[in-house]
Amino acid sequence: MAHRELLARHRSVMPNWLALYYEQPIEIASAHGRRVTDREGRTYLDFFAGILTNAIGYDVAEISDAIRSQLDTGVLHSSTLYLIKSQVELAEKIAQLSGIPDAKVFFTNSGTEANETALMLATQYRRSEQVLALRNSYHGRAFATVAITGIRGWSASALSPIKVSWVHGGYRYRSPFRELSDADYIKACVADLREVIETTTAGDVACMIVEPIQGVGGFTTPPDGLFGEFKKVLDEYGILLVSDEVQTGWGRTGEHFWGIQAHDVVPDAITFAKGLGNGLAIGGVVARANLTDCLRANSISTFGGNPLATTGALAALNYLLEHDLQANAGRLGSRLLDGLRAVAAAQPVVGDVRGKGLMIALELVGPDGEPNPAAAVALLEETRDRGLLVGKGGLYGNVIRLAPPMTLTQAEAEEALEILTQSIEAVAKEGQ
Ligand code: PLP
């Protein structure tokens, strides 16, 4: 009853577009490891890690203790006008991990603000309001970021304070170049990039922003090397490359610490958020010093880089590095991909299995390969009934996304695989 009443109050006080998952939404009451427990006492294996936010998992002693010791100082927030040791240490670590020479870091509270900052820096630096983005992208929900988002359901380009052109490359499964080999796909996308620059801009473009694997867009996974080839074209025009690593950072893709590294290129700026705080609100941008320092006006974020968030994030980042969670993501991600590909081979409702590391998607399709969002909703409910939480997404809402905490164990991976297999079979049967 209390649960139903809370749901009614949520619906009356929150905007309509703030949709909840599940016909009977969940209220999480406690969490530990990779599992969350709802108010009714049901426990679920969380295969979406919050929203890729709990990269390490829940109730991790090393992180909780660090946060608690910061709370014990009495300093929840001290103005960013003063020195904050954890902020400086975290910035140093991220600058070093970025691989960007002479890098500086600016902290924000979210991925949206991180991308807004990167766009502000690039447009100021290049004295141009023209930006290139990938079709099917998601970069956030403030004025500039919502304008460059290339997914109809999340976009509002009429509000754009900047000029945007969109390029092929991200969403291969439904692209006109889908049937091509990796090498030819890259060539076709590079030709498209060049044509977009030549035909829709005056050439004075500020930057191109890419998600190495599109997150909200359905974990679309372009062939390795694509963005390195893009960079060669961008360099001809002096266009900066921004890698939005809000979902792909911190080793989640298994092979590399940043998703963009699979493309053999160092971007001019990296934006980050989500997993860094392991649930605390923190984001930021790391970029070459001549880019960060190009702003003449003052700029500040009141809460960005506050002591509580940077203390927690530093503990989370240290944990992630000390336990080599990137390697774990690679190993268990391969196991999950293999297992799911075997299931998909027997179930035509799964049109595509893709991803890297612990970022794996199932694209659900109808008999003619058309997007099947109803099957995605059904799979969400089926997995929940069996004790597994997963994510949904994709341009057509027909993609199931799997992104568990990177501390996942082999036994938990097998448990999820079993639940997914049973759930896919149930959805396939329902659809017959
Ligand atoms: N960029 C990417 C790739 C994202 O996936 C998201 C959020 O899902 C954002 C930016 C926006 O981040 P936030 O919701 O923290 O503002």
From TrEMBL:
Its cofactor is pyridoxal 5'-phosphate. Its EC number is 2.6.1.44. CDD domains: OAT_like. Keywords: Aminotransferase, Pyridoxal phosphate, Transferase. It is an enzyme of class 2 (transferase). Homotetramer. PANTHER family: ALANINE--GLYOXYLATE AMINOTRANSFERASE 2, MITOCHONDRIAL, PTHR45688. This is alanine--glyoxylate transaminase.
